[in-house]
Write a structure and sequence with these properties.
Largest sheet: 9 strands, mixed
Order of helices and strands: EHEEHHEHHHEEEEHHHE
Number of strands: 9
CATH architecture of one domain: 3-Layer(aba) Sandwich
Structural class: alpha+beta
Shape: globular
Strand content: 15-25%
Keywords: Plasmid
Low-confidence stretches: 4-44
Number of helices: 9
CATH class of one domain: Alpha Beta
Helix content: 25-40%
CATH topology of one domain: Delta-endotoxin CytB
Length: 289
C-alpha cells in the first residue's frame, strides 16, 4: 500500500493538506494561553548561497571510529523495493513509502546524512540548535531540496506521552501509517542494537535531545518528505527510542520538502564521494513488519 492509497487513521478528522503541518491532536497542552506558540516560519531563510563544492564534512570523530569498528562487515541493506522501509540515519529516523524506487531512497538517505554532517561541521546540534538547523536545511537546499512549508511550535507536557501519536500529529495525514509503523518498529529495537547506538549517540546528550523524523513518498516525478525536527529538554536523562516516561519541553520545526532530482543528479556522485564509508556505519536498517 502506498501513501496515496492509505485511508486516514482518524476518519472523523478532516484531512490535512500534503503541504501544511497539522495542528496538535494528542493529549498534550499546547501553549494554551498564547496563540503565538504555533508560529509560521515561511519567511525563515533556508537557502544557502554557498556552492556545493565549498561544503565540507567534519573529520572522523572518535565516536565515528568506534561505530565503524563495531559495524557489521556487510554493506548497509534496505528493504526490498516495493515494500515500506525505514532506517536510522545518524540522528534521524527516515521512513520510505513502498512506491519509492531504490535510486530515490538512496538519494534521500545520502542527502539527509550529508546535510547532518555538514551542519555538524559548523555547529553543535545540541548547544546551537537554531544555527545547526538553518545549516542543515540550507545544505539540503543546495543539493536540490525545495521547501514547501515551514512552521514551528512549542509545547510543555507531563508524562505519559504517546510519542508516536505526538509526532504523527505534526505530519501530513497521507504519511500517518508510515510514521506510526516506523516509530513502532524503532521502539522495539534493543538499546544495544547498532541502529539505536547510532541514533542515541547523535540525538541524545544527557537530559537533552534533537530528534528528526522524516517520512518520504513520491509525488509526480520527485520524492517528497515531511520533516519534524524536535528539540527536547527532559527532566532527567533518557535512553532508547521514544519510549520515555518523563516530563519535557519541546520545540518542533515541521518542514515539507521536495527533491528536484534533476538538480540532485548533478551532485549525486560528489555526495557519495564526500560521504565515503560513512553510510556503512552511520545508517542502519529498521526492520518493518
Amino acid at each position: 500500500m502506498t501513501v496515496k492509497d492509505a485511508l486516514p487513521l482518524h476518519p472523523g478528522r478532516p484531512r490535512r493538506s500534503l503541504r501544511e503541518p497539522s495542528s496538535h491532536r494528542g493529549p498534550l497542552q499546547v501553549c494554551a494561553e498564547s496563540a503565538a506558540c504555533v508560529t509560521p516560519k515561511s519567511s525563515m531563510r533556508l537557502m544557502m548561497s554557498v556552492h556545493f563544492d565549498a561544503i565540507t564534512l567534519p573529520e572522523l570523530s572518535a565516536r565515528e571510529r568506534a561505530l565503524e569498528t563495531a559495524s557489521p562487515p556487510e554493506t548497509t541493506q534496505f528493504s526490498l523495493v516495493g515494500t515500506a522501509s525505514a532506517q536510522i540515519n545518524e540522528g534521524a529516523l527516515l521512513a520510505f513509502d513502498s512506491a519509492l524506487p531504490k535510486q530515490m531512497i538512496d538519494d534521500i538517505s545520502n542527502s539527509l546524512l550529508f546535510a547532518q554532517l555538514a551542519a555538524d561541521k559548523q555547529f553543535n546540534r545540541h548547544t546551537a540548535t537554531g544555527d545547526w538547523q538553518r545549516t542543515f536545511f540550507g545544505t539540503l537546499s543546495v543539493m536540490g531540496w525545495i521547501t514547501g512549508s515551514l512552521s514551528e511550535r512549542t509545547e510543555v507536557a507531563a508524562s505519559p506521552v504517546d510519542w508516536a501519536e505526538l509526532i504523527t500529529s505534526y505530519m501530513p495525514e497521507n504519511v500517518d501509517q508510515l510514521v506510526l509503523s516506523s516509530i513502532a518498529a524503532s521502539q522495539q529495537l534493543p538499546t544495544t542494537s547498532s541502529a539505536i547506538r547510532i541514533w542515541s549517540n547523535a540525538a541524545l546528550v544527557g537530559d537533552e535531545g534533537v530528534v528528526i523524523v522524516g517520512p518520504s513518498y513520491i509525488s509526480g516525478d520527485n520524492p517528497n518528505m515531511a520533516i519534524a525536527l524536535l528539540k527536547f529538554t527532559f527532566e532527567k536523562e533518557v535512553a532508547g527510542f521514544l519510549r520515555w516516561d518523563v516530563n519535557f519541553n519541546i520545540t518542533t520545526s515541521i518542514v515539507t520538502m521536495e527533491l528536484n532530482e534533476s538538480i540532485y543528479s548533478k551532485v549525486r556522485n560528489s555526495v557519495i564521494a564526500k560521504l565515503g564509508n560513512r553510510p556503512k556505519y552511520l545508517i542502519a536498517s529498521v526492520p518493518m513488519k
